[in-house]
Amino acid sequence: MFIKKRLLLVFLIVIVALSYGFSSFAAEKQELIIAFGTEIVTFDMHNYRGTMDIIAGRPVYEALVDFGKDHNIVPCLATSWNQIDTLTWDFKLREGVKFHDGTTFNADAVKINFERKKDSGSTASVSFVDEIEIIDDYTIRFHLNKEYGPILNCFALGTAIIVSPSYLENTSKEEIGNHAVGTGPFILQEFSPGIRTVYVKNQDYWGEPAKLDRIEIRAIPEDGTRVMALRSGEVDVIENPSPNDIPSIERDKNLYVYQSPKDRTLFIGFNLTDEIVGGDEEKSKAIREAIAFAINKKEIVDYVLEGLGYVADTGFIPQTMSQGFHDPDLERDFDVEKAKAILKEAGIEEGTEIEFTVTRARYLKDTAIAEVIQQQVGNIGLKLKINVMDYGPFVNYVQGLESQMFQQGYGWPAGEPHEVLFDLFHSEGARNRLAFYNEEFDNLIDTAVETVDLKERMGLYNQAYKILFDKVGVIPLLHYQNIFAANNKVKDFYAAPGEQIYFEGIYIE
After folding, report:
1. Is residue 75 classed exposed, middle or buried when 0-12, 13-18 and 19+ CB atoms within 10 A define those classes?
2. Poorest-pLDDT segment among 70-74, 272-276, 361-365, 457-461
3. 353 and 427 share one domain
4. Which residue, of 47, 156, 335, 394, has the greatest Cβ tally within 10 A?
5. How many domains does the chain have?
6. Which residues constitute the domain of residue 280?
7. Is the domain of 173 the same as that of 302?
8. Is residue 20 pLDDT above 50, yes or no?
9. pLDDT digits (tens, 9 = 90+) for 387-404
10. pLDDT at 27 over 60
11. What is the CATH number of the domain that holds 131?
12. H or E stretch including 263?
């Protein structure tokens, strides 16, 4: 009997130990380490610098509404909304929500944030808001300066998030981007730029709690190094594995490749104030047009991206948004002889050198694509001098109109063309890095956004883009896909067309 009791005791101790061990193991493993090719610049979403900032802000910050997985609009910090008339919208706000610093979310917080956004350097998503009126603590009214079709799409953007008003009030403008205080399912614990960013689960989240306890984001610029980090188990997920590595990743029984549609266009832009490639002078425009004809986009997609993208053959606006209502004439086909003839007719000296500023690891194979373009443009007698920069310095350089010709990717997070066309090319656009100013273009864009019928609206967008097309201000190259590689233990990974990652639904098996 004594022996049986001792065996029973030992058995119970083992069971308790194993149970404790398994539960500790499971808790320890409910964390995700993900590596991107570029680093986070700021957590000030109202003055964000790039899509990586928006991706990083999503776990912490929320907006009035959000995009569901089918890209429809769903409630978030607002529970419902009502269009009173063409220029007036009411939003009922969610009660009982606290910011991470304990501040109460209410209509005052919304008003403060939207007014701050209107005063920021990026107003595309709120430029149509004239006045913000507080009806009561949990009802807010937006008075618009014009009828605005995609208002809900804009209010769902990662730039229209709500920050704790206490944090905004007590933090200097310079310091706001170094931390984040929102209402989201995760709390920002550490932000070490260029090294790592760490989030922990918000235990007091108003909605369904996240499955992960911890997220860590790292910046690993080199494609091969990211793949090695995934294979070794140093990280769990990586963005943009090199196309060369995808077949071996798919053969690895411990890994998988995730692909989904992505609304991001890679394009070439020109500084229209530059002496060589800018302005309306015959020679400058001839250089831009010759470059457009010299680029073989299909070769880039087929051989550099190995099919992991789509040729931009419907103008600048992706087919997913134009839905077939695009002008097929707004594209220049690959034609080397025509490019040479244009240069010869304009008297462009062979060997003319142009600086070509590009990013390093911000977009899939961005530097490799630039090198192919350098070769293709060299075939017509122009010399591109590639200037490779990390994304943060790149933005400052191009925004400051210090570049001549640059390569950039731009996303369409609103699922509607207006915000991008306004932001990049409108005279009031915060990211008009071409220095493109055209009153007719502005009027067409402003009219289109007030037009409800999609076919009619796309007709106006096409007319506006034709002005830019004729000037050869930009050359659309391709549209990307979301591409990630992950360890098999990572479940329910989802990246939206707008490139946002739904971290709250991911779990570790």
Report:
1. middle
2. 70-74
3. yes
4. 156
5. 2
6. 262-481
7. no
8. no
9. 999 998 999 999 999 999
10. no
11. 3.40.190.10
12. strand 255-270
